[in-house]
Amino acid sequence: MSETTDEQTPSSEQSPSSEQSLSSRVPAGGFPPPTDFAATANVGPEVYERAAADRLGFWAEAAARLDWAEPWTEVLDWSNPPFAKWFVGGKLNVAVNCVDRHVDAGHGEKVAYHWIGEPGDTRTITYAQLKDEVCRTANALTSLGVTAGDRVAIYMPMIPETVFAMLACARIGAVHMVVFGGFSPEALASRISDADAEVVITADGGYRRGAPSALKPNVDEALTKVEGVRSVLVVKRTETDVEWTEGRDVWWHELVASQSTEHEAQAFDAEHPLYIMYTSGTTAKPKGILHTTGGYLTQIAYTHWATFDLKPDTDVFWTAADVGWVTGHSYIVYGPLANRTTSVMYEGTPDTPHQGRWWDIVQEYGVTILYTAPTTIRTFMKWGAEVPAAADLSSLRLLGSVGEPINPEAWLWYHENIGGGRCPIVDTWWQTETGGHMITPLPGATSLKPGSAQRAFPGIGAAVVDEEGNPIEPGATGYLVLTEPWPAMLRTVWGDDERYKDTYWSRYGEGVYFAGDGAKLDEDGDIWLLGRVDDVMNVSGHRISTTEVESALVSHPTVAEAAVVGATDPTTGQGIVAFVILRGDAVDSGEDLVKVLRQHVRKEIGPIASPRQIMVVAELPKTRSGKIMRRLLRDIAENRELGDVSTLTDSSVMDLISAKLPATSSED
């Protein structure tokens, strides 16, 4: 086995081995769709056959659900793979499709968002009000000199103004680049610089775990590291004092409120850039994933409608994620709004002010569809079933899972304690890069298997292959690939076409996308995702590059070298475990040093990247070519028996590291 294979083969230990112990709780063949649910489902089993018979025709029908200012002349141009063009020649405006057309059709009084602030303040925003706010914001951005194609950085809490800002950018053709509010000034600065953003939209702060969490100071610090930002638009959320740079900083409530609610939207080409989203890569520099307009909105709107069986007149939909991640873009903003959905948007954490906060929200607003991450579900499991049992969750009719593979036990807990045993669960696999759902059950058509995303969405080409790219047999483990272009696919890595080709399209030949995830096929041909096979960790649904964390550690003056791995964690999916070699003159002060290094990583990247454990070691396991064998470090971190060490320059290194394991510090 080559070094690459040794590093990247998915571990069979992650496969659904717990199925036997759970079999008594799972019907033979899985949980069938409830009869009444299937009878009224938006899509049934026949959709797979229809999409297979005419894939491009299927996506053309999906696109026709949107309003186009000019029709397309070609559904797909794949003449220069991997650079796709969807709905060639067509023109549309995303904001018009998400807002204006619903108001024009007489649905202006329909609620778009029930927003709940963590301290308990609330706002109800209708589609008519949303249209006014988006138009005001669009006019405000125009007054700041923003034009079509310009990049706008958005560094915001979970408040309605974040949605207004995104839609306003889409309305005027500016490219938004939302940065998760938990990222540090350094991470924000690198993204502003890479995108060459000239305007930043932020807030004084947001509320998290019962206290204000500052954002504007991070922007101020970030802007000392980059040039070219001429305006910072600031929402007053927490009323905390902030530094002010005259001529650059502008209050949202002063600029936006004074704008007209009239704005003439322009139609843009289907391939016009919509947004950039930065995701960690296997090098220290994050990748700017570019999504465009027509194909993205087509797939997001259709998957939202089909996967969640969305009934716009009766459903109350809640994607419990942050808008700063792709889940928030696709299934808090663009998909739900395109389908005239009433959504819940919550600012804070699940345990503020108490552990039943989410279930109070479900009860109060009559939430019918809940979409969240396995990490959160496992946290609820830890808190106990009595917490959700205290609320009336009978309004729920469908549950969803997103962010990482969900283990069968968590799936069943979710089904039994949140869904009351009656709600189908759609376990969705997709990525920042794919834009929307790619592998998922359809709730009116699929018998559900706890822990499996099951099969590709209609119109999507997916396969599980071996090292050489050959399809695997049922029961085997391999690599997930996508075999056909899809409408919401990323178009490139911002400013780096070669990195786009090398990262995603080089491993298995022209036109085959390597997803970076391991997968197993069961005897029915259903897909079980096994998680990342590269060096990107999935921590609470957030993708963090090992190299980015290693770079942060090595930037500390005491550290000479670092290796970082993601180890299985019962709550967060993966926890970050770091192994560091100190510089010659540095002193290992034990727990004090661990705390210093952990805090350093928090400052460089953000709290989400803070290592769960940090171990000081004398050497790291390396191959003769100098490559760090992270697979062996993962074995150590997860207390597994070590795999093959024959390719190491010094196999005794692993014995030394293993001996230190009990002294490893966990995060405070």
From TrEMBL:
UniProt: CoA binding residues: R208, R209, G210, A211, T327, S540, R602
Under catalytic activity, the entry for this protein gives: acetate + ATP + CoA = acetyl-CoA + AMP + diphosphate
List every position bearing N6-acetyllysine.
Answer: K627
Q: Which InterPro entries match?
A: Ac_CoA_lig, ACAS_N, AMP-bd_C, AMP-bd_C_sf, AMP-dep_synth/lig_dom, ANL_N_sf
In what residue span(s) does the AMP-dependent synthetase/ligase domain sit? 105-486
Keywords noted in UniProt:
Acetylation, ATP-binding, Ligase, Magnesium, Metal-binding, Nucleotide-binding
GO CC entries? cytosol
Transmembrane segment boundaries: none
Regarding protein family, the annotation reads:
Belongs to the ATP-dependent AMP-binding enzyme family.
Q: Which PANTHER family match?
A: ACETYL-COENZYME A SYNTHETASE, ACETYL-COENZYME A SYNTHETASE 1
What protein does this entry describe? Answer: Acetyl-coenzyme A synthetase
Q: Report the source organism.
A: Modestobacter muralis
